[in-house]
Amino acid sequence: MTRHARNCTAGAVYTYHEKKRDAEASGYGTQNQRVGKDSIKGFDCCCLTLQPCNNPVITADGYLFDKEAIIQYIITKKTEISRKMKEYEKQKKKEESELAELAEAEKQSKINAFLKTEKSIAGNPDGLLNKISNKIATPSVSNMTEGRDKHLPSFWIPSKTPSVKAKQMEKPDKNVLCPMTGKPIRMKDLFDVKFTLVKDPDDKKSLIIKDNRYMCAITHDILGNSVPCAIIRTTGDVVTMECVEKIIKKDWIHPLTGEKLTEKDIIPMQRGGTGYAQTNSNLEGKYERPVLQA
């Protein structure tokens, strides 16, 4: 096959590769790209700050957080929930007042209808009833009276145009949700984590620069993104899953303290970035852009 045949542009079929190439060049359509290991945080990094943890804590699902960051997150979310709850209560009171105004208007319309009927049957020689009924039946047409000055429409602001309907705010959930799993999270559900430092007297580098920072508390194996790890909930020690399977699960006794353990005391940690689909999930990054539709 000649080079010209491979680069033929006279084909009747718009191929997938031509469509993908043109989409990248045009700036339209969603872009998908495989994410490498450098784009995924390490196993010992906080899920919020993406930096190595100074005071690590872990959830029951195995997500690691810096204690300061997760406390600040919970406080911020509680403040936001409190603000939304106040807005919801304000909206609820407004709806109740509107219902009361509608009931009052309906009552007034019934009074007007009654006065009109009485006038047509019995008449009104003194003219007093006629003045009262005319005063009630002819409301002002001005936009600045009867509280209508606060609800004037605006044709320049989209949210205040006459055709826009007011959005009904739903009652906010009082639970603070985990930023990773979406489940309710509380401070008492977080467990302290205790990493065992690698003791190498010849290595003078700073801890954050070292590639091998931590090791298993029992077997002293080096921990990394490619090594499955777990937390012993009672003491917070970080061990490898191999240690759990071969040592701890034999008699369910903590090798360092001698206390009894159960299945719930072992919390598997979420893996760090290795770049392999078998280890990490969601390795595809998406960038959404406008789409041209025919």
TrEMBL record:
Boundaries of every Nitric oxide synthase-interacting protein zinc-finger domain copy = 4-78
Pfam family name, one: zf-NOSIP
Keywords, comma-separated and alphabetical: Coiled coil, Cytoplasm, Developmental protein, Nucleus, Transferase, Ubl conjugation pathway
The UniProt entry, under SUPFAM superfamilies, shows: RING/U-box (SSF57850)
Query: What are the GO cellular component annotations?
Result: cytoplasm; nucleus
Coiled-coil ranges per the record? 78-112
Q: Which InterPro entries match?
A: NOSIP (IPR016818), Znf-NOSIP (IPR031790), Znf_RING/FYVE/PHD (IPR013083)
The terms under GO molecular function for this entry are: ubiquitin protein ligase activity
The protein's annotated catalytic reaction(s) are:
S-ubiquitinyl-[E2 ubiquitin-conjugating enzyme]-L-cysteine + [acceptor protein]-L-lysine = [E2 ubiquitin-conjugating enzyme]-L-cysteine + N(6)-ubiquitinyl-[acceptor protein]-L-lysine
Cell location: Cytoplasm; Nucleus
Major location (coarse): cytoplasm
Tell me its family.
Belongs to the NOSIP family.
- Name under which the protein is recorded: Nitric oxide synthase-interacting protein homolog
